[in-house]
Amino acid sequence: MTACLRSTGLASLALALVACASDDARSDVPEPATDHGANSALPSGPFTWQLPPGFPPPLVPEDDPMTNAKVELGRRLFYDTRLSDNGTYACATCHRQELAFTDARGQALGSTGQVHPRGSMSLANVAYAATLTWGHPFLDSLERQAQLPMFGDTPIELGLRSQSELEERLAQLPQYAEWFASAFSDQPPGPTLLQIEQAIASFERSLISGRAPFDRWLIEGDEGAISDAAKRGYELFNTETFECYHCHGGFAFTDHVVYADEAFPQVLFHNTGLYNVDGKGAFPAPNTGVESVTGNPTDMGRFKAPTLRNIAVTAPYMHDGSIATLSEVLDHYAAGGRTIGDGPSAGVGSANPFKSNFVRGFPMTEEQRADLLAFLDSLTDVGFLTNPEQSDPWQ
Amino acid sequence: MPDHCVGVPMIERRERRFLLRLLSVPFWVAACAATGDPRADLPLDAHPPGTPEAGTPDPAQPAAPASSSGAATQPVTIRFRARVAGEPFACGSTYRDTAGAHFTPADLRAFVQDVSLFTLDGAEQPLALDVRPPWQQGSVALIDFEDGSGACAAGTRDVNFDVVGTVPAGDYRGLAFSNGVPEGLNHADPAGLPPPLQAGSMTWGWLLGYRFLMAEVVGTPRADAGAPGSALLHVGSSACSGSPGAGGIHCAKANRNRVRLDDFDPDTDAVVLDVEPLFSGVDLTRVTTCHSSGAECAAFFERVGLDLDTGSATATQGLYRVEPRGEGAP
Asked: How far is CA A222 from CA A50, A164, A227, A371, A376, in A?
């Protein structure tokens, strides 16, 4: 085991002295505190948002206020493989920082090898997500959402069997006992599932991405921050011809946002004509979108518009990873829906009766394609992908 | 007395955690416990059949008169048993269906709510459930037949076959219950609830609710080397909309059955849950799944006693029957 000092900026100086252990030694068995890197005391004090220009204050639950201690505890939990039943998976396994907290898979792979029908979503700016996952109309709590990958078994993700099993497992780890006591000093001794999910949610809320080259150009006026092609692409993005901005507008580049003091939170979902397997609009089961929750036939194929921030590093695309590249995504929208010629998913998506009115198709020259791709590239926030304060504390 | 002590060490540990948890659960729960109400309960909208519908949840007004009137009560243990075509149900055992396919259980658990006995003149008397961690918390009980062995690997070692409560002293014949979690609890955050409602295999995260009944079997390797199939049934309230906050979540299909076993004698009989009729006719060479919607649920729902289209309980069901406990039988 070697101590690994981070080459970091001032902000993470406190973490820079942390020693790290390799992953392979981790197991269910409690280990001496010195075996793990993240064994420093938790930072104290209220959390201070360092929001990019143009970003409103996120909506934070009254019963889970942001604190430095909870954010750091949540980070340690997020990256800890002991949160999976077989000790092989952490939240971070499917949400990798360098990929804007996605995993490069079209369909996520669980800790026991089961394939999820959908892909891991980016966690960039998830604090602003009006609802969570790809197409859920009322799952609006990051705290509660954490229970889905923990305990879900269709498919198995982290593979935990029960709340008490998780609580007892963490209670046996002296480090965590100390950290939970520190982060939740006003509560009876934990860890409880509520505390675990509050800490993870606090860390997730801290994952703010808004300092891409595009922002340096648009907000700070740095003309050299992005290429002329990217600037042209941004103009095309905002035209009524291409219609991109209707669903991917605003600071988060999605219409599915909520923030503090917002009078009218947007909870929108769209069918983009990706499938039409029966000629009546059906999407392949079980990926029927909001319909799978509400049972409402008109909700068929409706999913939320994901953020475009860091979109260049989150391939493949769509809820099921069925489009490999951003260029092909543009083809899909240019065609006003996807046509699949054969196989079980065959159908003319552009004729989907539930398709969004904004997906009408458009002519696109190769230069326009290149400009749009350059614009999308300019949304990659390298500082976010490499922020040492949000990296694996166990490494 | 029936043996309630299966898995004693685990239960004791959980009881301690449960007591600790009371310190951090919402005020009304703590208040219930502090006043010594033996039915320390959680608020719920659902009311046992035969009682007036309560407009506002009020833990101080138990639905059953047994514990509030001071009248003599008697303990009741409803004993459940699981069978597969009459054979004892056991994870790890292999069974053969009528088509000759071999299969083994992968799960069998069910929540039970609104349990009633019937007096000899036919009056329905709600059973006041004991607080019995981790299996009962006052308005709902969990029956758990899987022990984590064999193909039930996603389960837990502990099992529970009993629903325990009290009724006013008297003679009873006939039983009614539903598989479900009361509406007032079904969408609450499991992390803040006592067992058996805590987060785990019975929580249905994607609908922010619970699985009321979970039954799964998997085919075992076939002589012709074809890939074995499986059958999975998860019953819970579906077709949901609303918000966990103001207004609440409402499910258009409640999917709570109503089981009525008229001949049941609580002193001498057991309730048998036989999974064979549930999976009878299901082709175990392919994968069949029912998550409470879709065509593959049709046969399952009929046997569970549910109308797939409306989510309402039907008058008949084919899942449960009555059987004598027998002398010395478990």
From this structure: 20, 53, 11, 19, 17
